Amino acid sequence: MRYHRVTVRNFRGISDARVEFPEGRLLVIEGPNEAGKSSIVEAIRLLFDFTAASNAEEVRRVRPLGRDADPEVELEFSIGGRRCRYRKVFNRRGVTELEVSGSSEAVYSGREAHDQARRLLEEAVDEALFESLRVLQGESLVTPGGLSKSQRLLAALDAAAGSDPAGEGLFERAKKEFGRYYTEKQERETDELQAARKIMQEAQQQVAELGAEVRALEEKAERVRQLEPEVAKLRERVRELETGQRELGARLEARREAEHAEELARKELEAAEAQLRQVGEEVQRRAERGREAERLARELESLEGELAARRGELAELEGEARAKREAANAAEKQFETASARAKTLADDLNYAQELLQAAQMERRLQAIVEAEERREAAQAFLAGCRVTPELLKRVEEAEQQVQRTEAQLRAVVVQVEVEGPAGAAVVVDGEERPLERGLLKVEVTEERRIDLPGGFAVVVRPSQSQGLLEGRLRERREELERLLAQAGAENAQEARELEQRRLAARQEVEQAERTIHGQLMDLPNREDLEGRLARTRGRIAAYRATHAGRTLPATIEEARRAKETGDAEVEETRAAAEAAERAAREAEGALRGADAAVGEIAKRVERSRGLLERLRAEAEQAERERPSARLDEELAAARGAAAHAQRRLEEVRARLAEIGDPGPELERVASELETGKRRLREAEREMDEARGALRHAGDGTLQAQLDEARSRLEAATERAERVERKAEAARLLLRTLEKHREAAQRMYGPLLAERMAELGRRVFGEDFAVELDAELAPKRRRLNGTWLDVKDLSVGAREQLAVLHRAACAAAAARDGVPFFLDDALGWSDEQRLEEIARVLAELASEVQVVVLTCQPGRFAAAQPAEVVQIAGGRTGATDGTREGTQPGLL
Predict the structure, then answer these.
(1) 3-state secondary structure of 33
(2) Are 102 and 82 in contact (CB under 8 A)?
(3) What is the largest CA-CA distance in the chain?
């Protein structure tokens, strides 16, 4: 299997990439980390391993970040003598295309394309070798396992071992014969074996179906023999049930007539009993009416006596209630007088409180006025003050700079001392200067001329550094003066004093505002306080004018004591008034109760008298309409009629008991008759159908078909067993040959180890040798004559052995091999060994397709000949200049 070109789009960070694989040369793909090198290898793996519509995590992870696009992979490759173009777009619906050219051209799409690609891979590619020769990032230290199961590698080693051609030919013929009946890898049955078994199974099914039909006819004949006596019994039972149904119907009709007679007798009894009840009730009503009249006469006499006694008690209660009501009215007047006086005293207390509040508000108002004056003065100063903390800081910094510059200037200034007799004089810059005490000091801040007696003159100039400092001092003094003018101060000390005054003024404003806020309390401003004071003064003046004729309290304590005295008097008179009112109401309540009792008794007297008169009138009316003698005769006649009706009803019910209830039995017989008729119809229909089927099959063709099918089954069974015996013999022969072949292949390890040693001596030296384990993986290596276990080697040495081992496997199976990929391997190798391995890979590429991916440009420069593809932007170039191609456009 060889790759020719791969195109990857919208895959992780790759927007569009294409890599062409050279023929017979090593391909080195260079690029920085995250440039998309490993993604190209991963894209080829996903192309074969997953369907285009797969929702697997590995497929979801390769979707591009920040773009709504579907990953696309296209690979052109050769496999088994055919060239293929395989393309997939991974999304929910999925796009899969496979074009195969060669001896037979074909185009596939969808799931069929995926399955066909998998079949091509399974048929032509050794999976163990394919996985072992694909080294991804992080896998370089892992030696491949399972190579002992690689059939292509073992076949190559077998050929290298020089096995007997005749034996190999026998093995191939056995393998070919085995392939007639089973697939090579999964040992599934082939079409020939399946066809033989299918023919036998179809013959078995036909024999079974025809046999079932024959057995069904035999069962129908047997069923006809069973149904004939059953139908006769059913017909006889139906006739018996029909006779019983008629007899039960006659009994049911007789019972209905008896039930009707019972209904008439019952109604006659009910009418007689109703007449008896009506006459009896009238007799009872007359007796009860007489007893009620006697009770009412006794009750009326008792009520009239009680009414006379209660009326005497009522007169006494009326006098008592009148006297208590007059006492309650007098107590209420005393309470009203005390309440009026208490209200006046409460008004006096309110007047005294407002006097106190007015005085307090006057003091608060005065404090607010004074605080506002202080605030206005402080705000006026703040408005005119130009000093700020920032400006003061700049002034002080400028002052410090001036002072530092002056100190520096004093350190470098030139001072000339002229000594001479006391009283002598010299001329300095044209001005005569005396030598006081015989000494004159002249500071040189600029060019100075000193004329001495005798015509001598001295010219002194300041140094250059002094001139610079003087200029700097002038600038800094000017800056200080500018800042002081901005602050409105003569000097820095005055500016600091202004800042202190500014801070004090701000505190004064804040203190005044707190005073104003505290004195205003719940009022928003001074005007509201003044208004409240004015209203309070107005109420005080109005109260004085209203009560001008009496002495008002001078203090609030006096007003409070007077109010407490008035309140006590009010409570005392209230209690007396409430007690008198309760006594009056109790007396009036007793009077109303007595009056109500008298009225109730009077009503009862009138009601009893009316009832008694009505009862007497009703008794007289009933006697006139229906005399008692006639009522007694009607009662005796009603009793006789009821007894006669009772005897008649008992006779009819005895007749009903004699007849009984044939209804349930009739229903049972009717149900059984219906069931019998239904079963009879079903049995007759089943018997007719069975007889018809027997008449239709009476010509014997079905049995002939069964005999013919049995003959075909015997032939098909014999052929299937013969094919199965051949298949089993082919399996046994192949497994036996494989067993002996595996024994011969135990010598493959030394052959592969020798091939690996040939490659490794170019890297490790002529002393290099290696020993492989049963799985054909490196077990030990020789270093300076000493054998060392692979696990005891350094990381770099193990990594180099792993690469050389894969290279040896690829070289051994070069004819039927697969591409050899190395992704960022040999990271722990020194430069010398890396160059030697690069040369080994370049030489191997003439036999095997080798692809190396690295993040370090020039790392495999020693590999010659080789083609280098650099992934660094929009274009790439090959080292030999043979071709150029587009490369990944990265996000």
Answers:
(1) coil
(2) yes
(3) 199
Domain ranges of the chain: 414-461
Name the helix (H) or strand (E) containing 845. none
The answer to whether 76 and 3 are in contact (CB under 8 A) is yes
Q: What is the pLDDT of residue 341?
A: 84
Contacts of 882 (CB under 8 A, 6+ apart): 22, 867
Upper half-sphere CA count for residue 801 (Cβ side, 13 Å): 28
Contacts of the segment 880-884: beta carbons below 8 A, 24+ positions apart: 882/22, 883/20
Q: In this structure, what DSSP letter does residue 189 have? A: B
> Above 50 in pLDDT, residue 882?
no
d(CA 342, CA 385): 64
Rounded Cα distance between 831 and 707, Å, is 87
Is residue 429 pLDDT above 80, yes or no?
yes
For 434-445, b/e burial (b = at least 16 CB within 10 A) is ebeeeebebebe
Distance, in Å, from the CA atom of 31 to the CA atom of 854, rounded to the nearest integer, reads 7
Mean pLDDT of the chain: 81
DSSP-assigned beta bridge partners for residue 82: 79
| Of 23, 134, 20, 70, the residue nearest 818 (C-alpha) | 134
The strand pair at 95-101 and 106-109 is best described as: antiparallel
684-697 burial, b if ≥16 CB within 10 A, otherwise e? eebbeebeeeeeeb
Q: How far apart are CA 699 and CA 809, in angstroms?
A: 76
Give the HSE-up count for residue 503: Cα atoms under 13 Å, Cβ half-sphere: 7
Can you give the pLDDT at residue 380? Answer: 92
For position 762, what pLDDT does the model report?
84
Give percent of the chain above pLDDT 90: 14
Of 79, 77, 2, 72, the closest CA to residue 40 belongs to 72
Residues in the chain: 891
Residues 109-136: what's their mean pLDDT? 81
* Mean pLDDT value of segment 871-888: 44
- The beta strand positions in 244-395, using DSSP E, are none
Q: What is the pLDDT of residue 859?
A: 81
Could you give phi then psi for residue 659, rounded to 5 degrees? Answer: -70, -40
d(CA 820, CA 129): 10
User: How many CB atoms are located within 10 Å of the residue 739 CB?
Assistant: 9
Give burial (CB, 10 Å; 0-12/13-18/19+) of 172.
exposed
Tell me the C-alpha distance between 351 and 556, whole Å: 9
* Tokens standing for residue 110: 């969808």
Sequence-ordered list of residues with C-beta below 8 angstroms from that of 700, at least 6 positions apart, any chain: none
Q: How far apart are CA 638 and CA 214, in angstroms?
A: 89
Q: How confident is the model over 172-201, as a mean pLDDT?
A: 75
CB 642 within 8 A of CB 272: yes
Q: Can you give the pLDDT at residue 62?
A: 92
Nearest residue to 839 (alpha-carbon basis) of 815, 871, 810, 807: 807
Q: Following DSSP, what letter does each residue of 604-663 receive, concatenated?
A: HHHHHHHHHHHHHHHHHHHHHHS-HHHHHHHHHHHHHHHHHHHHHHHHHHHHHHHH---H
